[in-house]
C-alpha cells in the first residue's frame, strides 16, 4: 500500500507522509545496517525505483526525506547497493549536491559517502559520474556541516590507489 501511495500521491502532504513512513521503515535499529531482508523487500517491491525517481520532485521536503530513506538502504549488501544504483541514483545525485537548501546537499553527500564505501566498481561508477567536482565545491564554500559531509564522501574507506588520486 505504501508503494502505491509513493507512486500515485498527487497531494504533496500525502507524499511527504509516505516518504516519512519510508524513512521509519528503512531506519536502522540497534545494529549499523538495516536487515538485508527488509532492504531486499523494498528493492523487489519497486519502492527503491520510485524513491529514486522522487529525487527529481519539486518539493525539497520530499527530496530530503527520499534521500534519508535511500541513505538508510545504501549500507545493504553489495548487490542491493548495485540494484539501487541501477535505479538511477547516481544520475540524480549531482543536481542535489548543488541544491539551494543545505539539508538536501548534506543528505546527498551522505548518499555519495555510502556509495563510496561500497565495492571498488561502485566507487568507480561514482567517480566516472563526476562527483568529485561538486563535492570539492562544497568543501570550499558550504557551511561547516556540509563541508564535513562532503569530506566524508570524498574519503572512500575502500578503493584503489587510482581512485584515491
Fold and architecture overview:
- With 165 residues, this protein is mainly alpha-helical.
- The chain has a single domain (2-164), classed as Leucine-rich Repeat Variant (Alpha Horseshoe), CATH 1.25.10.10.
- Helices cover 72% and strands 0% of the residues.
- The protein is built from twelve helices and no strands.
- It has helices at 2-8, 12-26, 36-44, 47-54, 60-73, 78-86, 89-97, 102-115, 120-128, 132-141, 144-153, 161-164.
- Helix 4 (47-54) packs across helix 5.
- The longest helix has 15 residues, at 12-26.
- The chain is globular, with a radius of gyration of 15 Å.
- It starts with a helix and ends with a helix.
- The mean pLDDT is 84.
Task: Please outline what is shown here.
The chain is 72% helix and 0% strand. The protein is built from twelve helices and no strands.
Give the N-to-C terminal Cα separation: 46 Å
Report the strand count: 0
CATH class: Mainly Alpha
Number of domains: 1
Question: What ranges have pLDDT less than 50 throughout 5 or more consecutive residues?
Answer: none
Q: Mind telling me which CATH architecture this is? A: Alpha Horseshoe
Please state the average pLDDT score.
84
CATH topology label = Leucine-rich Repeat Variant
Q: Percent of residues in beta strands?
A: under 5%
What is the global morphology?
globular
CATH superfamily: Leucine-rich Repeat Variant
What kind of assembly state do the chains in view correspond to? Answer: single chain
Helix-strand sequence = HHHHHHHHHHHH
Helix and strand composition category: mainly alpha
Based on CA atoms alone, the radius of gyration comes out at 15 Å
Number of helices: 12
Proportion of helical residues: over 70%
The main pleated sheet reads as: none
Amino acid at each position: 500500500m505504501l508503494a502505491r501511495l509513493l507512486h500515485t500521491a498527487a497531494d504533496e502532504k500525502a507524499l511527504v507522509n509516505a516518504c516519512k513512513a519510508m524513512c521509519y521503515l528503512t531506519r536502522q535499529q540497534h545494529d549499523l545496517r538495516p536487515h538485508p531482508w527488509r532492504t531486499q523487500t523494498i528493492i523487489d517491491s519497486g519502492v527503491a525505483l520510485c524513491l529514486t525517481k522522487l529525487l527529481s520532485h519539486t518539493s525539497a521536503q520530499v527530496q530530503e526525506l527520499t534521500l534519508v530513506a535511500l541513505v538508510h538502504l545504501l549500507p545493504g549488501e553489495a548487490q542491493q547497493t548495485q540494484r539501487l544504483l541501477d535505479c538511477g541514483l547516481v544520475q540524480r545525485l549531482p543536481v542535489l549536491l548543488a541544491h539551494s537548501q543545505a539539508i538536501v546537499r548534506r543528505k546527498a553527500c551522505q548518499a555519495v559517502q555510502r556509495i563510496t564505501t561500497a565495492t571498488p566498481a561502485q566507487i568507480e561508477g561514482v567517480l566516472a559520474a563526476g562527483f568529485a567536482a561538486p563535492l570539492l565545491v562544497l568543501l570550499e564554500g558550504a557551511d561547516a556541516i556540509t563541508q564535513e559531509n562532503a569530506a566524508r564522501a570524498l574519503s572512500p574507506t575502500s578503493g584503489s590507489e587510482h581512485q584515491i588520486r
